[in-house]
Amino acid sequence: MSEIRREPLLGYEVVIAARRAERPQQWDHSPPVAKSLACPFCEGAEQLAPPELWAARPHDSPANGPGWQVRVVPNRFPAFDREEQPGEAQCGDEFFPRQSASGWQDVVIESPQHQISFSELSPENARLTFLAYQARLNALKSEGRYAYAQIFKNVGAGGGASLEHSHSQIMATERTPLRVQQELAASRDYFDRYGRSYWAELIERELAAAERIVYADDHFVAFCPFASRVPLETWILPRRADSDFCGVDLARLEQLAQLTQRCVSQIENALEFSAYNYLIHTTPFDINAQAYYHWRLVILPRATTQAGFEWGTGMFVNPLPPERAAALMRSAQ
Ligand SMILES: [Zn+2]
């Protein structure tokens, strides 16, 4: 059973998920395994994973067998419990506030072959991966049970991946996580104060400054943010106001998949390694933030680790200025 505990003074949240300790650790502390025979995500091993929830099957092959390009299955070792009663009341007292952690966790398997990084996928598999994200996000939204869903990807031991086969995850929660609430509240405050979107303003200023821009066209902008927490941290945003990833049209999804592949590839070329996370910030299901928020995809290369100083102060030490990082990425195409 999982539960969410909140630190009472500062309010940070922790999911205590004892069952996660049972999951396999391909990475462990040994060198990466090139290919595991027991990989549950490879084509032909479908019976090792739970029944699929979504799949791209170009020749209409039967579910849960070979013949797919991208497929989605439930996570066998979820951090959140499905069984809990929805909306179970918070309990404990003000010093030990706790709440049942109920939610849902998908795994998006991005390729039938045992590829590892998102940059190795065919453009078609990258496109279908983003299509799967959106389809599952909309399905979870329509269940009416969840408040928010986080799309994220962990690659490499440094990125927290426990299996190396290229995959991403979607975690849906019944309550909007505090961090997400804070970002939306700050965006809303800015809008109330200045009458325009912080995110629209930020994009305009980054484009004017130019030095942190990695890529820009009529629809998207990619840049290394001014206060990058890690070397080559990269944000991809829609240029026009668009707060909800659920509604991105198919042409833009395809373009986003390509741009993400391109940025990941530039990061890998620049750093000569491949451990990273990416994640998509979007609005909670029941909030319309079109006027003051932009969804965004954040790539966090894992060249540095959070050590004692970061844990003690909350300040990140980034040895690579984002202005140099952006130049490095532009030249690493
Ligand atoms: Zn595999």
TrEMBL record:
Lineage top rank: taxon: Bacteria
Pfam family, one: HIT
Active site residues according to the UniProt entry: H167 (tele-ump-histidine intermediate)
The protein's required cofactors: Zn(2+)
InterPro entries: ADP-glucose_phosphorylase, GalP_UDPtransf1, GalP_Utransf_N, GLR_AS, HIT-like, HIT-like_sf
Keywords: Carbohydrate metabolism, Metal-binding, Nucleotidyltransferase, Transferase, Zinc
Binding site for Zn(2+): C39, C42, H114, H165
Signal sequence, renumbered to the chain: none
Residue ranges annotated for the HIT domain, each copy included: 210-283
Positions of the Galactose-1-phosphate uridyl transferase N-terminal domain: 3-177
A GO biological process held by the record: galactose metabolic process
Cofactor note: Binds 1 zinc ion per subunit.
Gene Ontology MF term list: UDP-glucose:hexose-1-phosphate uridylyltransferase activity; zinc ion binding
Classification via PROSITE patterns: GLUTAREDOXIN_1
Protein name: Galactose-1-phosphate uridylyltransferase, putative
Biological source species: Blastopirellula marina DSM 3645
